[in-house]
Amino acid sequence: MNSTRYRLSVLAASAVLAGAALPAFSGHPSESFDGTTRAVQVPVDYSDLNLTTPGGVETLYERISRAARQACGSTGRTLVELKAHKTCYDRAVSDAVEKVGSTTLTALHRSRVTRPAT
User: What is the chain's alpha carbon radius of gyration, rounded to the nearest angstrom?
Assistant: First the structure.
């Protein structure tokens, strides 16, 4: 089988706020910075998972979520920083889920992000 099918990168691009410290990354993430935006890619391997089972899909979703948290860095302290982190995280997870192309994973993601009407 093609091993690239089982590996994706969670990509997070977030605006860097003036004076905000960039988190230190160790290990496998790759980072680029253009002065106003940083983009971080964190690889997610799922070659060991069976995406036809609920357990496999749940495990992949957890891995994607963890990678998005790592790629987006710290949550920040101000309301603006918290909002920027949430936007980064939400987009990174959504983009990664879409790249996998699994209807079951997409359904799980939608169930996690859809809030009931009040």
Answer: 15
Q: What is the pLDDT averaged over residues 58-81?
A: 88
Amino acid of residue 27? G
For 42, counting Cβ atoms within 10 Å of its Cβ (0-12 exposed, 13-18 middle, 19+ buried), the class is buried
Q: Where are the beta strands (DSSP E) in 1-118?
A: 7-15, 30-33, 37-45
Is the whole-model pTM more than 0.85? no
Name the residue ranges covered by the structural domains of the chain: 3-113
Q: pLDDT tens digit string along 87-96?
A: 889 999 999 9
Nearest to 90 by CA among 75, 79, 102, 77: 75
For residue 13, count other CB atoms closer than 10 A to its CB.
17
Taking the CA of residue 113 as centre, how many other CA atoms within 13 Å lie in the half-sphere pointing to its CB?
A: 17
